[in-house]
Amino acid sequence: MNSPTLASRPMAVTGSLRGQLGTYIGLAVVLLGMVALFSTLSDYFLTVETFVTIANEIPALAVMAVGMTFVLIIAGIDLSVGSVLALSAAVSAAAILQWKLAVPVAAALGLITGLLCGAVTGAVSVAWRLPSFIVSLGMLEAVRGGAYLVTDSRTQYVGDAISGLAAPWVGGISAAFVLAVALVLVGHLVLTRTVFGRCVVGIGTNEEAMRLAGIDPRPIRIAVFAATGLLAGLAGLMQSARLEAADPNAGVGIELQVIAAVVIGGTSLMGGRGSVINTFFGVLIIAVLEAGLAQVGASEPSKRIITGAVIVAAVIIDTVRQRRAGNA
After folding, report:
1. Which residue in 199, 280, 290, 307 is a FRET match for 314, CA 20 to 30 A apart?
2. Could you tell me if 237 and 161 are in contact, meaning their C-beta atoms sit under 8 angstroms apart?
3. 197, 190 in Cβ contact below 8 A?
């Protein structure tokens, strides 16, 4: 009686691996297709300088997308990551310029700020059973106000105090990009190889079943939001290192880019399914799209329209995929 079940397990695992491989290939084809398209439209796109520039501009987006992947998998959303980025950078700059603290201490304060912001968002949504959309929307405004207060509504120029993150390594690639790739790999391993990752997927798939299995989803939810805030704080440091300044207006609208990258990577907005590696592909697609549109001379309104259309297309594809899976 057990043999059919046991025999079906390898088949299920094989099917899952094939599905993941198919998704990887599909995203890679889309990415290469975009590179080929923009290389045809612009004589300057297919150059080492272009790809180095893209690599050095995406670390902040990439690390926030890692956290957002976990948030969407538990069927949540965090709209405050852009504001948290700005506040974390502002706190670090104030610690260096006004409080005269050592750079490592200032950086740690920025990271702690992001962690606390994320933890508050998670705790409030869990304690009062409120939609994370509403809570994070309120945090978006409150945290942005905090960034203005800390900086006195002025850009704080930190110079080369934390420029080490943006310093070029091999071939001009920055340390921040290397760190972002490392965090993508760590996030992938946590999601796919740890009990915590399985609990995250389980909460997004069927939270009530997790409760019946004796697992309290509340601390896991809070931990996911806290980690996302921490990564947003790191993104703030990365951006400050690249620009050598902390701008209270930094990160305005970036939460939409983060969510877009995660959704383009195939993470379901309904929860229960996602991949950090696929999210990184989504980040690359967004970055190549923006760089390519800029090089072909597309206006800012046109770029926003095209990017929005890509997001809607990704959501439609995800919906169709879920319906087909449900009918299978």
Report:
1. 199
2. no
3. yes
